[in-house]
Known about the structure:
14% helix
Amino acid sequence: MHTRGNVMIWPRLLLFLCLLLLPLTSLAQAPLQTYVIKKGDTLWGISERFINDPDYWPNLWSHNPFITNPHFIYPGQKVLIYDGRLEIVPARPEAAPDEPEARPAPPAPEKGQSVTIKTFGGSEGFVTRAEVASAGTLIDTVDNRLLMAEGDKVFLDMENLASVAPGDEFTLFEVGKEVKHPLTDAPLGFQVVTLGTVRITALDPSVATGVITDSFLEIQRGARLMPLRAPVREVELKSAARPILGTLIGARGNQILLGQHDLAYVDLGTRDGLEAGNMLYISRPRTASEFGLQGEEIQLPDVLLGGAVVLEAGQESASVLILKAAGPLYRGDRVTTVTP
């Protein structure tokens, strides 16, 4: 009876093992799709195209540490697509298959690529205390009107009149709410309300004469001046020379939630080694799971949330354009420079 029982059990066991291994057999036979990255491809674009999940890109990015640029990957790299996952093959750019083998592949550019970025109204929205102290002031006009608009002649008190020349353009602004650091509560500067623009037409011994070239809001005596930033600029994407850690301190529109294409500000500047074109990671400290075993002395890696590019760097702060966000971003989120 014992032997017969074993005979009956073995066929059932073999059948169970076959059923258990069937999915693995199917997976092994599943075709492995390969995609060669082309110029202009992005991590999130590839994620959306092949696995219909544009929010998968942080996984693709963070799991491939050799990708140092969060906005562009290099043409010639290969992406493996299988089982709902993406994996980038860490290879240097290669020549296209239809090109002669003797033609060498172009090396990856050291400073990335240049992109044209348009920010409506320039990058104003935040000024430091030092910038407010050095700003000029609209002190009068040619008559007794209280409000001024486009085409009006005005007189300007410039902090450094010798540095101004006819034809120079300035942004007219109003100082708004004080901005404090989201983590330390230290005063950083002030929000700015952009009122319009003015062009210098003549210089006198003590004042400059100008004409208002554009008005967005009501302009009155006491409006402050700062150099006009071009709304359209070309920024060369590049890695920073060393890791620099900072914080998102606010947004141009003073909104609570920040996202893709928003103009934001960080507490890093030229004194920290930051410069225009530097790429930034945006991250947030990771919260341990309810059942985590790590102690307080163990720090989990940050959650990668997005990427940004520095548009303009002052001494103590910089304006950045958020290129991609996997979710809502907030004041106080971390920023880290992308390094080679």
